[in-house]
Amino acid sequence: MTHGYTHLTSRTGDVVTKQYRGPDAATGCAREVAALHAVAGVLPVPRVIATGPAWLQTTLADGVHGQDLIAAGLAGSVLAACGRMLRKIHQLPVPAALSAPALAPGAVLVHGDYGPNNVLLDPDAHDVTAVLDWEWAHAGDAIDDLAWCEFIIRLHHPADIWALAGFYESYGSRPAWPELHAAIIDRCHSMLDFCRRWQPDGAGVASWTQRLATVRTWTH
User: Fold this and answer.
1) pTM of the model
2) Residue 87 and residue 186 in one domain
């Protein structure tokens, strides 16, 4: 299926199969299953049909991919809807399966890869109809999701950076740029380390090295 970057995702009828790859495949699968079960009925997410050590089958979710809607000129509506949905995610209790033994004060349910890259919306981009790809979910700081959504827009949709104002407005707050920038850099380091553990000489290492260098040049 389109828009997949790390894992292999395919569809047969109304069933979506996701095969996890990389050094943390089984862990990512377990995190996603735990998150999907925890938020089912509260947030719009696919329903788990079956799962294995590093694979997952879910129902097909309705909606249009957020990045496709941005490309269609609806960045403002997409980012506003993303902000409203992220506020709902961060207001939920952190599932026990994703909590550390001692939960840090202020920790929230972090999606871990949040942005228009992992949401489906109605064709007019008014509402999020599904939140996808929870394999990075964990208990952590809300800024992790806020910073990653900003990263996705700045990197993949630079002409639509203006729409981030609506994202933060609908979320309810906007961290200071130095905090956001530091969080983006930290996550890029994590992705670079992930690629080095997976394929030390692979294209991912070069790609994330370049992305990290690009991120360091960003100013508010």
Assistant:
1) 0.94
2) no
